[in-house]
Amino acid sequence: MSGEAEVLNEENRDVILQLIEAGDDLSKARDIDFSVVFPDSNTAEIFASELRRQGYAISIEEMDMEEELPWYVTVVKHMLPVCETITAFQQTLGSIAAPLGGRNDGWGCIAQNASNQH
User: Fold this and answer.
1) What is the pLDDT of residues 68-98, one digit of tens each?
2) Are 31 and 111 in contact (CB under 8 A)?
3) Which of 7, 51, 81, 102 would disulfide-bridge 38, Cβ 3.0–4.6 Å?
4) What CATH architecture does domain 3-109 belong to?
5) Buried b vs exposed e over 53-83: b needs ≥16 C-beta within 10 Å?
């Protein structure tokens, strides 16, 4: 595993542990939102177009959170929250984003427990 993958995997493992501590049922698949940031709207749209072509739901938004990378693209993937699978998808997103000046900026999902029916 590369250095970047090891860092992503460690960060993802921490988030998964937080989900477990919150009572999440990790055996339930759910939509996971992956954030990828870009320097401008043009590069964000090029990235988004590629992921739309692959069948993913996408949203693009300009935010004031990072001055150098203000354009956020959210890629939604329905999957189980498995650390290695999340890391692998982030690496795929990163490989598409990097040549455009973008990078991963985390992921999130709605916790699933016994009372959530999805």
Assistant:
1) 999 999 999 999 999 999 999 999 999 999 9
2) no
3) 102
4) 2-Layer Sandwich (3.30)
5) eeebebeeeeeeeeeebbbbbbbebeeebeb
DSSP label of 78: E
Q: Strands, E, within 2-114: which ranges?
A: 30-38, 57-62, 71-79, 103-109
Tokens 């990828």 found at: 36
Sheet holding 71-79, edge to edge: 57-62, 71-79, 30-38, 103-109
**Span 97-102, average pLDDT:** 98
The answer to whether 89 touches 8, Cβ cutoff 8 Å, is: no
Tokens of 2: 């590369």
Alpha carbon distance 118, 22 (integer Å): 18
pTM of the model: 0.89
Paired with 78 in beta bridges are 31
- The reported pLDDT for the residue numbered 114 is 59
Tokens at 10, concatenated: 């460690």
Distance between CA atoms of residues 25 and 6, nearest Å: 25
**Domains in the chain: boundaries:** 3-109
